[in-house]
Amino acid sequence: MKTRYKWTISMKLWLALTLLILVVLGGLGVTITWLFGDFYLQQKLDSLRTEATEISTQLATVYSWSERLSLLETFKLTSGTQMVLLDSHGNILVISGSSLNTSQALQGRISGYLGGAGGGLIGGWSRNLQPSDFFTAEYLAQVLSGQTISIKALPINGSGQTMLLAAAPVGAKPVQGVVLLGSSPIPLQESIATFRRLILYASLIAVFLATAVSLFFARQVTRPLALMQRGATRMAKGDFLPIQGITSKDEIGELAEVLNCMGESLRNHMEWLSQERNLLQGIVESISDAVVMLSFEGVILYANDSAKGLWQENEVELLERKTQIVDFLQTMSQKLTQDENYATMTLGIQVLQVVMAPLAETEGIGGHVAVLRDVTASLRAEKARREFLASVTHELRTPLHLIQGYLEAIQDAVIPKHQQGEYIELVLDEAKRLARLVQNLQDINWLERGQNLQPVPIDMECFMSDLDQRFQGRAHELGLNLDVSKGSGELLADPDQLLQVFINLLDNAMSHTPCGKTVRVFQVEEPNEVRLAVQDEGEGIPKEALPYIFDRFFRVNKARSRKDGGMGLGLAIVRQIVEAHGGHVRVESDMGKGTTFWIVLPRMQSLD
Fold first, then answer.
1. Closest by Cα among 533, 538, 492 to 515
2. How far lies 392's CA from each of 385, 399, 431, 527, 570, in Å?
3. What residues contact 314, with CB distance under 8 A and at least 6 apart?
4. Hey, what long-range contacts does 261-267 have (CB within 8 A, 24 or more apart)?
5. CATH superfamily of 280-373
6. Sign of CA dihedral 326, 327, 329, 333
7. Which of 41, 151, 262, 437 is at a distance of 20 to 30 A from 136, taking alpha carbons?
8. What is the Cβ-side half-sphere exposure of residue 295, based on CA atoms within 13 angstroms?
9. Distances (CA, A) of 64 to 67, 176, 263, 541
10. pLDDT band at 520 (very low <50, low <70, confident <90, very high)
11. Which residues share a beta bridge with 344?
């Protein structure tokens, strides 16, 4: 596609000035040459007329033709002029002066300069042309009537070179003869042609100089405009530097000052808008809740980091989750009213509380702003609290009812004396169960209140050997294999709390490992930390439950936990003890293959 040429204001002004100069100089040259040609032609005719009048006047003073002919010999005619003396009948009496066509050079001038002006080259004549060849009977009649004429005449045959004629009568009433003077216009036309060439050359030089001057003038005049245009372009792109290089005090200078003032105002306004935008963006980004701006067509216009976290995992967008959120927000926006702008949605295991408001624009509602708050933790905490109260109530009620029933039966002698010892053992087991429940609650409360630990250097070889001796008996009772590896090095920790960690982990591992399987405890050597693991070959933990396995009161299998007396507090206690030592705990599990709990503790870090 051909690029369209762009006409700048400088080129337009230069072209306008150039055309104006061409028109003025061209019209002036044509007018001058035309006036000059007519002026010299008329001047030549007037000169011939005057000369013919003078000759005729002198001839009229002489009454005999012989004297008149003698007098003619004394007259000196103007160069290039020929005289013919005619009688009253038009007969030629005398011819004197320069011949009009006597030389080859004159023929060439006639042919070269005046071929088109007078009807073409001279033709149809067997001799040189004379004034009488142009003097018709009509002209003769006018002169015989007493008139003096001066004309530009063609040959009588109607073709050929023109001639300038002047005729004056000799004598009066009656006219005795006619003095006829003739001159070729060729020298005059050559002079006019030379003058025209001079005018043309002068005009070309003047046009060239005027064009150069007008170009310089146009650039000087339009330079401030170009500077302002570039400055305005910069402002449109956000660069509000002032326009430099314009010092004139006229309207253009005032316009430049106005543009600079406007740029300064725009820069201040843009800085203010940027500050307000950064402030607003900082507020929105710092909000822990997810903020989503949705267009009326369902396109996400803006989302803060918390919102992106709902549909991104390791900076990879999960299209299904994003589509689910957008669809829910679109459906909610269609049902949105002033009184009902609240809804709850479930996204996997997350529960989101959504509040939506319309985004008002100048031409109506252009979209909606939604705030999504993750209430999963609070709902889970509330649910855990209710479950905790229900579980504690149940766990306290059951042993208390058993204790109360057995004691009442013993008191009322319902139970024979030989069986009372067995029932007393049952009452004691229930009492121990209550004591364990109370102790777990006390441990959690103790850890939550940030009670100081009592760290001492622990020999890991002795610690691992003690674990092996402590749990081998129970493993044998359950038909399990307990494999405790040999420890190495020292660890700065509270021995009682560290032992409680492994008691809870091994108790869970043995409870969930089938008969004949193996439970392992081993240590992995690291330079600055101790990595301990408790691994079982049980049924494993579901993947969706892994993030919540260390939450208080969380139980994967609630029915089994109640049967075994668990309250879902053991792993919560493990995490709090490990974190109190400056370490961390994590879990790995495959369904049907078993579970591994990793405990990572700093080797010799001092604890406050």
1. 538
2. 10, 11, 14, 44, 15
3. none
4. 262/235, 263/231, 263/235, 264/240, 266/235, 266/240, 267/240
5. PAS domain (3.30.450.20)
6. positive
7. 41
8. 6
9. 5, 11, 104, 162
10. very high
11. 353
> Do you know the residue count of the chain?
608
Residue in 442, 453, 596, 451 with CA at minimum distance from that of residue 532: 596
DSSP string, 137-153: HHHHHHHHTT--EEEEE
Cβ pair 169, 57 in contact under 8 A: no
CATH of region 379-448: 1.10.287.130
Nearest to 310 by CA among 374, 377, 398: 374
Which CATH architecture group holds 7-97+130-239?
A: 2-Layer Sandwich (3.30)
pLDDT at 101 over 60: no
Helices (H), 335-484: 376-411, 417-448, 460-478
According to the model, what pLDDT value does residue 110 have? 28
Q: Which stretches does DSSP call E strand in 26-176?
A: 81-87, 92-97, 149-153, 163-170
Please determine, looking at this structure, whether the domain spanning 456-602 carries the CATH number 3.40.30.10: no
What is the side-by-side order of every strand in the sheet holding 584-590?
481-484, 518-525, 529-535, 594-602, 584-590
Four-CA torsion 218, 223, 229, 231, nearest 10 degrees? 180
State the pairing for strand pair 594-602/529-535: antiparallel
Mean pLDDT of the 593-606 span: 81
CB 94 within 8 A of CB 85: yes
521's CB contacts (< 8 A; 6+ apart) are 464, 467, 468, 482, 483, 484, 485, 502, 506, 532, 533, 534, 535
40-63: per-residue pLDDT in tens? 778 888 888 888 888 888 888 887
Assess whether pLDDT exceeds 50 at residue 143: yes
- Of the pLDDT bands very low, low, confident and very high (cuts 50, 70, 90), residue 99 is very low
- Give the tens place of pLDDT for each residue, 348-373: 778 888 888 887 665 555 788 888 88
pLDDT tens string 438-467: 776 666 666 666 566 778 888 888 989 988
Q: Where in the chain are all domains bearing CATH 3.30.450.20?
A: 280-373
Where are the domain boundaries for CATH 3.30.565.10 in the chain?
456-602
Sign of the C-alpha dihedral computed for residues 244, 249, 252 and 253 taken in this order:
positive
Neighbouring residues of 242: CB distance < 8 A, sequence distance ≥ 6: 231, 260, 263, 264
Neighbours of 56 (CB within 10 A): 25
Q: Which residue shows structure tokens 């087991």? A: 429
Question: How far is CA 548 from each of CA 385, 484, 551, rounded to the nearest angstrom?
Answer: 15, 28, 5
